[in-house]
Model the fold of this input.
Amino acid sequence: MARAARCTRRKAARLGLLTALCTACAVIQQPPGGPPDFAAPTIVSVRPDSGAVVPDFDDAVEIQFDEVIAENSGGGLDKLIEVSPRPEQLRIQWKRSRITVEPHDGWRPGIVYHVVLAPGITDLRNNRMEEGLSLVFSTGGEIPDTRIDGVVIDWEAGRPGLNALVEAVLLPDSLVYVTHADSSGEFSLTQVPRGTYTLYATIDNNSSNRRDRREAFDSVSVVLDSTASHIFWTFTPDTVGPQIRGVDPSDSLTAEIEFNQMLAPVAPDLGAVRVWLLPDTAEVTVHVLWEKAAYDSVRAAERAVADSIAAEQAGPDSAAAAPDSAARLRPRRGRPEIAAALDSAQVPDTTRAERLMDERPVLANRWYFRLLEPLAPGARYLVEAEAQGIAGATGESRAVLIIPEPEPPDTTRVPAPDDSTRAPAEADTSQVPVPEDST
Done:
């Protein structure tokens, strides 16, 4: 009897425990860690202060945040932090809610330093800082009130130098101060020592933060006392002259020559291109030779005339709907005589870089030549060109122009029978009224 009572009490206890567990499972609670965090990290302190003069500074620059930040912010902290003058090696350490920065061989005495933190720091919930930090301090001596600014133009691409690398090399010590152009190609570098600088602007296509041999750049020497400014027209230097990459027909009289580099923006001499008909190498007369901007202008005028003639032949009703070929092919900018043909309704450029680009011709790597006689279908021509690159080097090269054969008529299609030989069609009696039955 006692044993049965003990079993009953055990079952009741188990049932009570199960009920309590189920009740606890049914209660909806907030997840641990407090409410969701959607705020980006903020900087709460920097050491040393910006503008401070700290003789014999031998500690690390420290940036303190209000929360723990992600160690791989921006793909790596080394991609977000930049120190000028540029050291050989930079030591960056992540310490949860702070970052420390120092050159591997320490801070040099008597130098004005710039430490730049780019936007991109994130917290552990991936909330991103959209602001950056610019810190200037000195390890001895004053921090001057100086400024170097300007515009970088990617001349080869015909656009502002977006995020171009700008380096100011102080002579004779070769200290390199670094900044970057914005989306409009403009840049500003302030509070750098007075003296003589060599300035470089580079289109940093591989984002290496270094000036590589095959990247477009421009340079100038300036003496900085208070302010200096310069407009950089970047292009890829090449000590070997342009070589022909290919020749293709453009129309029945004209062919296009493509070179492997940008050409000097000058009108070529007619004798710069010679053409021979193969295989007997009989020389063919070149009637005219154009650079790309001039050829675009000629083609625009030719198509405008063709559109006008077509509209007149079609009648007055279609004249208003005729396409404006001149507007369609009009070059955006270039030489003054070409720019004069721009439509007054074209949207004007608004940035400084785009206004500056209107003052110089567009670079191109193509010439166009026109012959007196039409290009013969199926013929092969030897084309020789002597061209000057934008860096001044001249190159001579040859290539073969092949004119394709006309396509043969399609004989696989069965022609439609002539009306005169077509069998008479059967009469359609479905619509003929049926006469009433008189009977």
Residues 2-26 form the longest helix (25 residues). Residues 17-31, 322-350, 420-439 have pLDDT under 50 and may be disordered.
